[in-house]
Structures are given as structure tokens and as C-alpha cells.
């Protein structure tokens, strides 16, 4: 039988119980309790014509209510879960050594998929996940912070790419988003908006989570809808991983109490296991000593587990260990001790997050809704992260800017690793091993170490092959059409009057029946691209470029010509599951065919122009501060996002504070950006002006007046002369009071690209963590009067 015919027959036989698109009406038309489905071709649906009668007197008139829009009968609740920075070999469900009993449970009640793929990076995968379109098609060829002014890379989803939230909301679902939002342009983070690309603008009626790629789980940059909130201030031991589950459970209870028949779509995206790795001590202690055998032994163990579980074929081969990463037996005792600790904390974070996800699922079960809830649990939005450098780090913002932290320095934080005094990440070698059996890591779109994700789905009564394994080739863009088919909803042609781009994914529901194990994949072709590394899959083959450098090198070395300087590899996936055996030399005609196909797909989905730069892309987006060189603030201000604040990186600047000190002296923060893990602070300490510059937690430079300010008005100035051009250069800072120099110091280097991700610009107060714990603790509100703060910046010297 023809493959496509077979798929059609299978779909018709297995899913006749799915909701249909035919209109369903309940209740007496015009009554307050009337409901109706909609065809959904245009969203929102046009209001129906008034069906009552209107005369001069209400007694002679007949009222009529528009029916409430509802999904089709039997449409499921949907719980869509995606974790962060976890490759194929992380979860125990897919052979990893870290227990993930919640993911196990979903797999046991449904299906595991062994050839499911991400885009290799955070924002892009998430954009594809919620739109059902390729990441370049919706402007997310890279993360939002690295956006460039091309359609495939501008980090703007656009009104022609309605999300699954938009669609389900307009069909009567309660829609909510918990956790990470990495799909809002960074220059739209402030309270001045616009909010069209915040979760609320993307169809999610409720948002509780953080903005950007990561946040500190102990003191997160947290939002409820559009407002910053600070729940951790009054809750000792607060951790967002638990708090997020608490919030989701509370939300489910409230929606169930108010509208028990209304289906929900809950998008659950914890920060785990992106750095910083912040599990609780309770979870860290569970993994003490579990990784003392090292990454090579762990890799062998994972590979054996994977074969035992059947999540890789018996014929699969373990790819070679790279020459530029050390083998465990070559390390000294200090290195082994520190590296094992890194993995213990990472593993604790994985297990901790899985446990909290389980609590949310338990709430669905307790409400009696589990049987009609489609649960999709994706372990990781890309391969395991290699952004912690080859040695790991106690402070992740240093590592992602190319600043390595020696093991001897890391050991000073051994006991505090994962606590609120660190933002840790692990060695690349662990990341590589956690992507077993594949090569490479996060950011590498050409190889499955960057793109292969473990995923499980369950929906009792519909996914009937409980505990089954599926090997069809699929991609994250296939989730939206899967949800839509399950809910009996067609993708809209227009949303808010704007024609929509076609959904580019294909539904995975054809894999759900017991007889679907060996059905050919409905996805025949899929391109991959990230930072110039690229691949093309077609009908069991994949052609992949050889990465020119590891992602931990940040693209700062010499890179080949992005168009024609890359070597290509070729793999026959029907025989070679892990991209072990490169047959490019044996199959030149096939390779050429695949290369040509990549060009076709890349042109179709806005992949051009190719760009293999990485770190140097930061800072090129539009900005609310563009064109301004002087910033003036009066009174207390807290929570201004870094993207809306003056940037002091790679330039000269002057900060001038006009203050009035009260009788008895004053103290407190005058101005700060960032905190414990990078940034600066200008403050009075026991009356003495201090300027502290925190180089990403690794080093601090300090200017302090020898004398306290007397009561009355004063002008405190910090002037810094940058010694550019280039990133991270040094300079000379001068602290002055009332025109007289009180401290002067030259420093050898400054922060390269990012002072902070999740700590704001504050005036007169500090709201998250201190720039120097030895000097003060937050909020350290200024006790005098701040008449005016002026920040004047020079041109960038890069």
C-alpha cells in the first residue's frame, strides 16, 4: 500500500473519536447558558448577529445572548512541558543516570519518541514550539539577545505567526504560561511595553515567570503578567522551581473552581536545567558521590542503559570522545573532586525539576482530569549546554563571555555550589557525556548532540500503546499541529484580520495507535541551522556540516567562510542512529543532492543570510536607549530592566549624584546595575561614598572616599575613562566629592558583553542582590535625599 494512503487509513481508523470541526451548539440559542464551537478560520470569530427583538419598550422586546465559545466536546486539556538545556542522555527515562520518575510515568502511560528534535538553542526552539513553524520563519534564528535586522533573525514573531496560545484561547481554552519566556525582544522588557510579544500578547491569559534566557532561582527576575513581583523577599529558602509548581497548582485549583468544564492549556517551562544550576540542598545531598567515576564511565553506563531500554537500536554505536576534552583518568584529584561536584548539582537540578513537574501532574490527577489531559513532556529545548567552559564555573556569566575560572578558585565555592552565592555551570565534558550517544552539544544544529531530545506523551484512551516506543523522525514544530488535531481545531487562515503563515509542522497523532510502531515518518524533510552550523534531513539521510569550533569558544577564533568554508558529512540514519559513520566520501552524489536541498529549504524558511558569528552579535538590537547619551533620574526607582538602562560597557562614562545628607549622616544605595554576580554600585557606606565594580563575581574593584559626607548638599561623581577600542579593556576611574578627587584607580579589564541578565537598574535602593555582600545587604535604601542622578555615556569603543 502507498505510504501516504496507509497513513490516511490509519489516521481515519484510530482517531474517529477525536473532536471534529463541525459546529456544536448547546443550550437554547440566545440564552445565557448557550455555547457554540466555531470553525476558527478567522480568529477571533466575528460576533453573531443579534437574534432577539428590540422594540421601544423592554417588555415588548426579547433579549438574546451571544453563545459562549467553547472547544468541541471531548477536546482535551493540554499540559505542555519543556525543560531547559538537557540532551538525550540526561533523563533516566532515556537511559540517563539521573532519575526522572515523572517523565517515566508519562512514558509508561503513553509513548516515548527516540527521534524528536529541537533547533539546538533556547529561544529558537521555544518559538518553533509555540507557533508550529520553523524558527527562522518566525524571526528566531538565534536567541533574542543576539537578534539581527533580518527577517529570520529579528526576534519578532510577528502578527502573521499566531501561537498555539492565540488559537486555543479563541476556541474557548483557559491559557496560561509558567516559567521561562525567551521570546520577547529584549528591548520590550520594560513596563512601557509594547506587550504584543509578551505572553499576554501571544494568547496566554495568565503569565507567571521570568523574562530572558535564565534567572537566579533564589531571587528570580519574576513577573506576574506584566508586573515584577518579589515573593522571595519574605520567604526564607524560596526557590522558583518549587514556587512555580505551587503557582501552577493554585492556578489549576482556581480555574477548576470557577469553570470546571472549561479545558485548560498550561505551558510549563521551568528554568531547569539552564545555568545557573540552583537545586535545593536537600536534592544536592541525594547525589553525593554519584559522579565520582567520571564522565567517560558515565557515558558508557548511559549507552548500555539506552540499549537495555530500547531507546537506541541495538546496532547503534557510541560516537568517539573528542580529542580536545580530557578523559577522566588524566585529571588530578582536585579536578576530579570539583568536576564531580558540578555534576552532582546539575543532576540534583534535573531531578528536582522533574519532581516539581510531578506535583503539577498530581493536581490534574486529583481533580479527576488526567484521563482527558494530553501531556507532552519534552526533556530539554536543546542539547546539554557547553556554555560553562571546559572547566566549569561558579559564575556562569563569566564563562559565557570567555572568562575561565581555574579549578583552584572554584574549590573555594565547593560547599556553596548551587546556593544563592553562586551561579554555577559545569564542564563541557559533562555536557558532551550527557548527550550520549551523540556528538556535540547545545548550539550545534548539525549534530544530534545539539538537537535530539527525549519526549514522552500521554492521553489515556487515545494513546493506547502504553509504554510504547516510537522512532519516527519529528521536530518541535510538530507539536502545535498535534495539539490542534487532538482538539479538533484547524489552523486559522487569519488572526486579527492578518493572513497567517502556514503551519509548517505535521501532526504526530498518527503514531499513537498500537499498530503505528513501524509506520513511516510523516516528516520527510527537516533543515537545521544555528550560527552557520547546518544540516538537512531527508528520507532517512542527514547531511551535516562539521563544526568549525566548539561552542565554548564563543566564535571568537578564526572561522571559515560561512558559505563554502565548511566540510560536510553524510549519514545514513537507517543504518547509523548516532551519526557515527560518515559516508560522504562514498556517496558524493547523495551529498550533493542533500546540499542542494538545504539551499532550497533555507530559502523557503528565511535562513539566509548565514552568519557564523556568536558573541559579537550581542548588543545589536534596537534599544529604548539608542541615540541617548544622557540619562536623568529623580527620586527612588527600582526594577528598570538592563535593556532600558544606560549601558556602561566598552565606553567612558560619568555618573553624577546630587544628594542631600541628613543630620547624623546618611548611607545607602545611590545607583546600581546588577549585583552579586556582576555590575556596579554607587553608595554611601557609613557616610563614605563608594563605587564598587563587580567583574562577574570573579574580581571586585573599589573606590572609596576616606571621609564621610557631612550633613547638607553634595555632588558625588564617578568618572571612568575607557581604554578602548575593543571589548573588556581596562580604564581609569576617579571618584570625586564636590569637585575634589577622593579616590583614583586604574583597572586592567572590564565586563565584555553582559553585566547582568536578571538584575535591574536601581536608583536609591537595591532590589535583588548586593554588588558587594561585605558592604551591605539589600534593599539598603538611601537615607538621604537624592535630588538628581545623571548618567552620561560616551560612544562605544569597539
From TrEMBL:
Annotated signal sequence range: 1-22
SUPFAM superfamilies: Alkaline phosphatase-like (SSF53649)
InterPro entries documented for this protein: Alkaline_phosphatase_core_sf (IPR017850), Sulfatase (IPR050738), Sulfatase_CS (IPR024607), Sulfatase_N (IPR000917)
UniProt-listed Gene3D superfamilies: 3.30.1120.10, Alkaline Phosphatase, subunit A (3.40.720.10)
This protein's record includes keyword Calcium: yes
Domain Sulfatase N-terminal residues, every copy: 76-489
Pfam families per the UniProt record, alphabetical: Sulfatase
Keywords, sorted A to Z: Calcium, Hydrolase, Metal-binding, Signal
Family: Belongs to the sulfatase family.
Official protein name in the record: Arylsulfatase
